[in-house]
Amino acid sequence: MSGFKSFVDPTTIRVNGKLVGVVGPNGCGKSNIIDAVRWVLGESRASELRGESMHDVIFNGTTQRKPAGRASVELIFDNTDGRIAGQWGQYGELAVKRVLTREGGSTYFINNVAVRRRDIQDIFLGTGLGPRAYAIIGQGMIARIIEARPEELRTFLEEAAGVSKYRERRRETENRLFDTRENLNRVSDILHELDQSLEKLKVQADLAERYHQLKETQERQQKLLWFLQKKNALKEQSELAFEIGKEQTVLEMLSADMFKHEAELEKLRQIHDFANESVHKAQGDLYQTNSEIGSLEAQIRYVIESRKRLQAQIVSYTEQKDQWTKQISSFVDEANEGKDNLVELSQQKEIAHELFLQQQEEMPGLENELDILREQAQEMHDHIVQIRQQIAVASTNHKNLSTNLFDCQSRREKLLSQKEQIDVPDMEELAFLKQEKAEAEQQLEELRFTEESQRDLVPEFEESCIEIEKRLKECNAACIQEEARLLALKQIQEKTQGTGKAQGWLEKHGLSDFHPLWQDIQIETGWETALESVLMERIFARGLSSLDWTESFLKDKPPVKTCFFASDSENRMRKEEASQPYESFSSRIQYQNDRIRPVLENWLYGVYAIDSMNEALSRRKTLPDGACFILPDGHIIDRYSVRFFAAESESEGVFSRQQEITRLEESHQKHKLEQSRLIEEFRGAESRLKELNSKIQHIHSETNVQVQRLHDLQMKILKLEELNRRFKDQSEQIDTALAELDEFRQEKELELAGEEKRLEELDMTLGEWQQKEADFLETVAGKEDELKVLREKVHQAERSAQQAEYDERALVKRLDELARQIETAEKQVQMVSGSLNQGQLELQDLDDKVAQENLQVLLDRRMTQEEALAQSRQHLDDLAGQLRTLMERRLQTERSLQPQRDKIVAVQLKEQAARINVEQFDQKLLEAGADIVALNNMLPDNARVSTFQTEIGRLNAEIDGLGPVNLGAAIELNEASNRKKYLEEQFQDLTDAIATLEDAIRRIDRETRSLLKNTFDEVNQSLNELFPVLFGGGHAQLSMTGEEILDAGIQIMAQPPGKKNATIHLLSGGEKALTAIALVFSLFKLNPAPFCLLDEVDAPLDDANTERFSNMVTKMSSQTQFLYISHNRIAMEMAEELVGVTMQEQGVSRIVTVDINDAANFSDEVLRA
């Protein structure tokens, strides 16, 4: 066991003895062993395993362990006696294993081969270890047996009787019977639907035939219509070609007129262009004159405007000169006043400067004295600051050292806590996972090898199926062809016998039941036609007991040639025929009725068989009178004539048809047998292929599961290895960190003590220096007050001197600025005076008299040029008028050309349309495969397109009136008929199968009833024997609650010593337990199970009853191996081996095994020692 409930670690329990006891305190997991056996044997009810779901069997974890991912239990059986039947009986050891993962996958194995749950249950059917196991008695099962209803008790009897396998067979048979009946119903429904389909298909086939007839007529009329339309199109094309030639002649005449107008137009254009150039030249001269006139007018306008501008400038310059003159006068007055003020300010500045220098001389001595005092005070202060800094440094060091020591202690405690919290890897689990991984890899390799080997078989199986299917199709085709041929031949043969005018006459005279002659004879193969040629209508002759009957036929003569013969004729052979050297034709005939032999020998007297015409002709002269030769083809040659045979009606060839019918029936029978054999062979091959594919799919699924399992194992191993590595690394890191912390803590404690001593010394020194500094600072303060008063005086004198000097500099600056402004104003006056003089000179130079004279000359020239330009333009306009007239005539001609071209194009399009129609109708006739000559002969002289269109429309309407037409109805009808025949055969096969299955169920019920009756009697007898042993007397028996043992329940009637007979429900608790144990052991006695598991069965028993119970178990252990759980000392003493279950680790069970004999021997040795 591994991961099953509390057995989380791989646990092996070796059950070597016949009596093995399991002991341990309450809650240690003893009953989990019983649950494990139930589970691995296929138990699927969680309630039977004391859980709510199947996943409850997987170890759910504890406070110290994580939940397991899978549960695995394996039982190993010793099969050296070969008690296991079936395919697994060949193994001396059988290992049954079940694995369940939290993902929900439950897998079963037998000898490491993956199997189904049902395969495991099949092994233990009828052994008391099945789903209704009475050999595994868990906690409370005794109570359930006691409280069980009669129907539930019967299940234990069935398990003991071993009828569970019969029940399984009956259930499978019922399932197959249900499926067969379902198939029969489906086939019946299909046949019913097929009958309806056949009726519809017959109607559809007739409709399709009518459709084909109408379609053929419609196609013929359509071809005639196309031929007529082609002829009409050819005629129209010829007429349009003539019209195109006529219209093209008119177009050529219009084109010639067009060319003439264009030549005249080109000549006139040249003249017009020359006149246009003259106009352009005159116009250019006029433009030149106008340009010169414009230039002179611009010059005159410029002179006038310049004169006005200069006059305005002279007025402006005069005003500016007056303004600048006034400013110069103002600036000179202000400068004179400033010079007077400057003298006064110089005297005030000298007085303030002398006072400042006098007071400033007193300051250096006082400042030097104060600086010396301040330097001394600063030195004292610096020394105090140094002391304070040393104190601050020492305090900071002391604080840092304390913090470091606290942090060191905190970190040390944290590291110790981390060390305790590190997850310790489970190395045993790692070793187990590695071993399981190796096993999984081996299993995966085996699965892949098995899958590849199975896949290699698939092409062979598929090829076998294809080959069988091909042969089956060929056989089916041969059967269908033979059936059709047989049906046709038999219909002809029956028609030959049962139709015609003679049939009514024969029935009238009571002769219809008389067989015709040909049915009682057989002729050698190849001579059938010859026999019919010789006998003619006599081949249908009927035998009468006496020819006297034929007298009555004279009153009612047969309507056709009819022959009768006397069936009581004697067998006489003519000697003359026997002496002839030729082979008698009658010798080739075999008779099924010897009474007709003399009749045929008489009719065939003188008829000799011969193989070839040449031989017959060469030997005909040797024939006696009345004799003849007969050839296989039916030709007759006598001495004087040759008669050639030819079949005249269906009645001919009756012998050959009959022989062909016989041959076809034999061949058809062989093919049917071959068909049945091939169908079975195909089904078998197909079934084997499906089984192989299913097996491959199953193996592939197992391979995927195994791959996933291997992947999960690898991930678990990697996680555990990583966890182990991290555990080692973290442990080493923590140990190293702890050592470093201890060393660091010792150093810091020494440093902290030194800093505390130094702080005390610095505090004393700081107090002394602070007192000295306070006394000295009072002296410095007095000197600073004296210096402050003197500085204030010096500062006031300095401000007065600076103010006087500032006012002096400001006045000097203003005087300099006034001098510059005067100079600038004088320059402006000079510049304005110069501009004024220059403007007066320019105004005198402006004169436009010459320009006015030149302008008048140019105006006269322009007038002359305008008159010449007007004459040139008039000549040009005249030429333009002529040009327009000529262009209009050309345009008129051109306009006539386009309609003519359009007219020709229109006629050409009509001609092209007619040509296309001819080609289209030619193509249609070609595609339809029409015979042009035949159509021309069929076409009437006065044929009209509308007549054919009307006829085609009528045919199309009639075709449309047919509605939807199934053109494949005939083929579908044939296929449906064949399918109906096949389904009728299936219907009969399914009916036979149902009868067989019902008979099998009745046979199973008979066997089950007999087996249960015998078992009931034997168990009753065993119960009567065991009950007194357990109770020390008394009586008990089983009784049925009904008449039918297959459905009846079972009750237990018990009578302990000294009590009246009562049901088990009226007994005490201990008596109930003993009665149930007696019943279980009675079942064991009838059908001993290989082993038995008992879970605290002896709990309600006292010591006396426990001793009797122990004695019985010891006695039965000779046939059955017992593994029992008990807290009773007496029960423990009977064990050969004790298995102890402990739970030292909370929630985890472990095993301790003790061999009682070995322990006793060891005790004896100790006592002797």
From TrEMBL:
Please provide, in alphabetical order, the Gene Ontology terms of the cellular component aspect for this entry: chromosome; cytoplasm
| CDD domains noted in UniProt | ABC_SMC_barmotin (cd03278)
Coiled coil (residue ranges)? 163-211, 356-390, 430-457, 661-889, 973-1014
Task: Keywords in alphabetical order, please.
Answer: ATP-binding, Coiled coil, Cytoplasm, DNA-binding, Nucleotide-binding
* Cited SUPFAM superfamilies: P-loop containing nucleoside triphosphate hydrolases (SSF52540), Smc hinge domain (SSF75553), Tropomyosin (SSF57997)
Tell me which domain of life the UniProt entry assigns to the organism this sequence originates from.
Bacteria
Q: Name one GO molecular function term.
A: ATP hydrolysis activity
InterPro entries with a match to the protein in the record? P-loop_NTPase (IPR027417), RecF/RecN/SMC_N (IPR003395), SMC (IPR024704), SMC_hinge (IPR010935), SMC_hinge_sf (IPR036277), SMC_prok (IPR011890)
Q: Where is the SMC hinge domain?
A: 514-617
Q: Name one GO biological process term.
A: chromosome condensation
The question of whether Coiled coil is a record keyword is answered with yes
Residue ranges crossing the lipid bilayer per the database entry? none
Q: Where found, per UniProt?
A: Cytoplasm
Enumerate the spans annotated as RecF/RecN/SMC N-terminal domain: 2-1149
Task: Provide the residue positions that the database annotates as binding ATP.
Answer: 25-32
The record's listing under HAMAP family reads:
Smc_prok
The entry's function note states:
Required for chromosome condensation and partitioning.
The domain-related comment in the record is:
Contains large globular domains required for ATP hydrolysis at each terminus and a third globular domain forming a flexible hinge near the middle of the molecule. These domains are separated by coiled-coil structures.
Q: How does it assemble?
A: Homodimer.
Q: Which family does it belong to?
A: Belongs to the SMC family.
| Protein name, per record | Chromosome partition protein Smc
Classification from the root reads: Bacteria, Pseudomonadati, Pseudomonadota, Betaproteobacteria, Burkholderiales
The protein's gene is named smc
